[in-house]
Design goal:
Blueprint (H helix, E strand, L loop, with lengths): L15 E4 L1 H13 L17 H9 L4 E4 L2 H10 L3 E4 L6 H12 L4 E6 L2 H13 L4 E7 L12 H11 L4 E8 L9 H24 L6 E4 L5 H4 L6 E2 L9 H6 L9 E10 L4 E4 L15 E3 L6 E5 L4 E4 L11 E6 L2 H5 L4 E6 L2 E7 L10
Parallel strand pairs: 1-15, 2-3, 3-4, 4-5, 5-6, 6-7, 7-8
Antiparallel strand pairs: 1-9, 9-10, 9-14, 10-13, 11-14, 12-13, 15-16
Length: 367
Amino acid sequence: MNWYELHNINTVDSPALLVYPERMRDNILAVKASVKDVQRLRPHVKTSKITEAAVLMIEEGIHKFKCATIAEAEMLGLAGAKDVLLAYQPVGPKVERLLELTEQYPDTKYSCLVDNAASAVAIAAQFVAAQKVLPVYLDLNVGMNRTGIVPGAAALALYQELAHLPGVSPVGLHAYDGHLHDVDVAVRKEKCDAAYVPVQALAQAITDSGLPAPRIVAGGSPTFPIHAGREGVECSPGTFIFWDWGYQQHLPDQQYDYAAVLVTRVISVIDGERLCLDLGHKSVAAENPQPRVVFLNAPEASPVSQSEEHLVVKVADTMQYPVGTVFYGVPYHICPTVALYERVGVVENNTCIAQWKVVARDRKIMI
């Protein structure tokens, strides 16, 4: 059998998402091998949102993590992570929820991002009232133009202001360059290096001003190999644990195993060339143009149209795919695909043996 096929496929309803722990572990080992010191890894868990996936990384000596939501941060507390950066600037009720996390999970060191004084003051006020101090990272805009302050004089002034603000303690800089994803590795590196220059200059200016040298958390999956070559920088890849078709095509310098596969079935034969599958918008990330999924056991199947619960594909001869035929597919973008599933099937030795809850798919776990 192919690695992704199931002996007990008749027990798995579709659409479904399957995960393969042994391949996940291989990917974890591969990402560890990419850095000299495992302490420089701070993987982003937005891809999996699964406690058991975090535990697999912890078992391999990875103890620092990044996340995007309070639920993901709580999931990491439940998993026993030692160091969790909420790579988001909390506003409104999120500040109180983050405070509750620090109280509920005292063995996990939580931190967050800030990019302006008003937000920092609001966060600090709640932590002062609770007689706590929250470590914070200055969020830098290095070209993503989404959040962050541009590294320079204003960023230095803000960092210095944070150092004198009771309730928070600036510990580092966060620079996400997710806008850099050129297929040509040399071009990607050139752009990444250029974006990093002002970050390094700001870190030096902070040190020159008499403050402790800031930690630097930089990059995502596309620029991970580049930042991995910088001494002391913490790197934050995330997709590696499952990988997907998009990165497989566009990041030729990174080789990870597919470790998450979609299961779908033929539910109707339209004519001699077209089939309808039960894989709609609600079952695979739909933010990208087609193809949003590539089928491992039917690579010739090309999407024609898609709606909420249906995917129409074109094949050479529908006689080869009667109603009930199982297709196994890899999504173009795995991260938002995982978020569409409440549970995933766990596969060992070509058998689905259990289910893992995608616990941080919800916006709230307990806090």
